[in-house]
Amino acid sequence: MCPRRVNLGVCFASLLISLLSCQLVLPQKKGARVDALAGIEKSVQQGRISEVERPLLTYALANPNNTKALELMARVRVLQGRLEEARSLYQRLLAVDPTSVSAKIGAAHVANSLGQKDYAITLLTTIEAASSLPTSVRLELATEFYSVGEFSRALTVIEGLPAGVRNGEALPLSAAAYLNAGRTQDLINLIPLMKNQASAKPAMAVPNAEVLQNAGLTKDAIALLGIALKRAPTNAKLLLALARLEIFTRKFVEARANLKKAESFDPRSAEIFSAQAMLENALGNNVAALGLMAKARKIDPDSSRILADFAVLAIRAGRPGVAAEAAKILLGREPQNAEYEYLLGAASLQSGNLDSAQSSLESFMQKRPTDSRGCLALGLVLAARIDQIENARRQLTRCIDMDPTNVEARYQLGLSYKAQGENDKAIGYLEDTLKQAPGYAPAVRDLGSLYLQTGAAARARELLERAVSLNPQDGDTHFQLSRLYNQTGEPDLAKRHLEMFQRLRDKGGKPAQ
Questions:
Q1: Which candidate among 54, 134, 223, 405 keeps its CA 20 to 30 Å from the CA of 266?
Q2: Domains in the chain and their CATH numbers?
Q3: End-to-end distance of the chain based on CA atoms, in angstroms?
Q4: Distance (Å, rounded) from C-alpha 127 to C-alpha 455?
């Protein structure tokens, strides 16, 4: 019997290992054993776990020294999410065969999933003569090196693969490793190969397009999916991937049309419902978005993609705590996933948890040093810390150097000087912001309030009246207009805007600055 305080999964694994250590060998013919194990392995590879779990356990008990059976049991436990049991099984396997490469790779995967990254790296780096391993094993090794953040090692293994594999199934992994290693030009050099692959194997365009989008190469990603769709126009996954990019680039009409097409080919796809939710949210239809997301999560509650969409939706709906919890779950599944780190950083920033936000976003920027989203978010975190204002300005300046069209970075730089009373510098940055984006209402309002503060009432009036026309629901604009009209001797207008400010404030609008 297991003690009650002991985790039952670990106890079961220990019991299984004890049984496997016994010399309980049922008489079987060697050929029959090989055939049975081959059939079980094939079922495991196909994900048919429930139908092979019992016969696999029976086989393992009958063949206690069979390392293949032990490994298959460990893989089944990984697929079931029973990682502690899988870890125990891999430890047993490595005790029986310390040189087993597949066991080291599997054990590293489990260790990394359990947060033991350093141990995972140690296991992987003890694998010698990678070039002599079977191609499929080398690809698994490269994947695990990538998963633990050893991008250069992953690329070294990939570069030793046969050209057909390197430029075929390993291509998305190469692209992702180049991106995370900061080798953007090497990633760009892969685009012609991606296009060839999209034409020959259209489904491969989806993971390649995701890497290109993460690299900020959205136009190339869209073009890649277009090539694939010419060869496979009824492929729902390709249509879905294209629609997601169209939502990202605000091509909402095209996105809706492609999602409808995708749904006609795959009407019960949770990912399509999730993408539809993101589209409705982008269009401001939050009730519809939440309904679609609930449907997606009901169909596939364990999907990381859908959970990530849910986190984004929660951030946009002003529920950062929920978004942060979702991001933590995702990082528990994939500790080295930069996108999940960005999600956690953005959610933590929104909730005011600056320590978590800074830690997550700094880690993200180490992986994606040229990512403008992360650069800006980290700048906002630093700007929110009183003692980090100079670091914030350096970070925001870096964002502008990275992308001169980054309107938000210029705006935030202006606010940083406004907050410190350095009005001339603040006005300069806000004027530059409006040169790039004349309709950016927050910058119009804040520049108007600065003009009002410095005695330029006529210029302030022009801007504040434009700001209220751009965003009539912004309480601070009404407050600034009330101040302006009091100064210009227009008490009726001043009273009207003060009342509007108070109504918006009572409804939850932001207080005046």
A1: 223
A2: 1-98 (1.25.40), 439-513 (1.25.40.10)
A3: 66
A4: 72
